Amino acid sequence: MQDSVQTRAASRAIPFDTNKLDRLMEEAGLDVLLVTSKHNVQYMLDVERAIFFDYMDALGISRYLPVVVYAKGAPDKAGYIGHRLETHQREVVRPWVPELRTSGHGSVDAITTAAQMIRASGVPAKRIGVEMAFLPMDAAKALQDAFPNSEIKDALFALERLRAVKTPAELAKLRTASDLVIESMLDVIAHHGPGTTKRQLFDALRVAEVKRGLTFEYCLLASGASHNRAPSEQRWEKGDVLSLDSGGNYHGYIGDLARMAVLGEPDAELKDLLAEIEAVQRAAFAVIKPGAMGGVIYTAAERALKETSQRDNTEFLAHGMGLVSHEAPRLTASGPVRYDAADADRPLEPGMVISVETTMKHPKRGFIKLEDTVAVTATGHEIFGEGGRGWNVGGTALR
After folding, report:
1. What is the Cα–Cα distance from 239 to 222, expressed in whole angstroms?
2. How many CB atoms lie within 10 A of CB 133?
3. pLDDT number for residue 399
């Protein structure tokens, strides 16, 4: 087991706007935050996630539980409790927090150390904000026992608002992730032909994304007339459409896009169907700009949907993207991932990133979809990973 480190000296600049976080905490009625999700820990510290726990959390009889402690108005008293197995990483690139301890073994001892850190700092702790969806029950009980007279509140909204507007460095990572996902898809499409199974395509895309420096997260793929998007032994044959919808992660930031392919030249009907989807996408893009209310994206898309021949078989969705899929801005309360539409009546801001997707489930021609990542800019918008938008013909590299 590696030796733990316990240090007090901060050596890096704080990577987020502390005034904004303090304001969000005041609005949410929070004195102190205990941040425990891997994505928010990464955001708060601006360091690489713990290598040993990037994929898994379970270890021995407990689990990995990183904890960032942040008190409102007191960044000089912030701290981080990490696992002993990340000691060497934190020595190479030290987080900005004044107090750093890589002494954790599991969930309860990590939260107990955090409670001790709060008490020793002397900051108010009557209202403690936690990530309720990312705090295991044993740790939550230990926290409540440590502060029996304090109110434990969910800090999800405050932390999501903090991340909603991306920095130039974050935007660059999202752009890279998007570009590399598209590049991977086009490579796989070009190098696979008739008889390839969906499972083989799934595995090939995984390899293609990893070769390009991405962490493969998922691929939803449909072929032929079927709308089933799970990998299987179904074969991609001549004339069949292929839908690839994949998430590739670049240093924590997700490139989530969907593109279409066909084995053989697309016929007139396929061209028309994809053109209808493209028209809906472009209608949504056109209204994305700073100051526009988030809900206008749906208004524009739904207007375009009414003009499509397959309007009863076509769905539109727009959601925030970043470290988390479906993060702020949150634009609809009726999508497949349920939450409130907190940003439908809020203005879009430069630096917000939105996934825009139109999905057609045609009864005969199959699953046809485009999904794009769009960043709000100071003057309008920018599309990340715009390549491959038409019908990409399979097997061209095999000829």
Report:
1. 14
2. 9
3. 81
Please report which confidence band the pLDDT of residue 12 belongs to, taking 50, 70 and 90 as the band edges. Answer: confident
**CA dist 34 to 238, 281, 346, Å?**
55, 39, 28
3-state secondary structure 146-191: HCCCCEEEECHHHHHHHHCCCCHHHHHHHHHHHHHHHHHHHHHHHC
The domain of 184 spans 168-398
Say if CB 320 and CB 352 are below 8 A apart.
yes
Contact 239, 262 (CB under 8 A): yes
Cα–Cα distance, 288 to 348 (Å, whole number): 8
251 to 28, 65, 86, 138, 363: CA distances (angstroms): 30, 20, 17, 30, 39
Query: Which residues is 247 bridged to in the sheet?
Result: 218, 256
Determine the Cα–Cα distance for residues 349 and 164; give it in Å rounded to an integer: 9
Are 243 and 221 within one domain?
yes
Q: Cα–Cα distance between 118 and 37 in angstroms, integer?
A: 19
Q: Are residues 185 and 208 in the same domain?
A: yes
User: Each residue of 141-153: pLDDT tens digit?
Assistant: 999 999 999 999 9
**CB proximity list for 390: less than 8 A, separation 6 or greater:** 260, 274
Dihedral angle over CA of 283, 285, 288, 294, nearest 10: 70
H/E stretch holding 73: none
Asked which of 138, 163, 188 is the last residue of a domain, the reply is 163
Contact 195, 266 (CB under 8 A): no
Same domain, 159 and 11: yes
Residue 5 in this model has a pLDDT that exceeds 70? no
Q: Angle of helix 268-286 relative to helix 296-305, nearest 10 degrees?
A: 160
One domain, residues 253 and 158: no
**Neighbouring C-beta atoms of residue 120, cutoff 10 Å:** 11
Other beta carbons less than 10 A from residue 395's beta carbon: 18
Joined together, the tokens standing for residue 18 give 């502390």
Instruction: Based on the fold, state whether residues 191 and 44 are members of the same structural domain.
Output: no
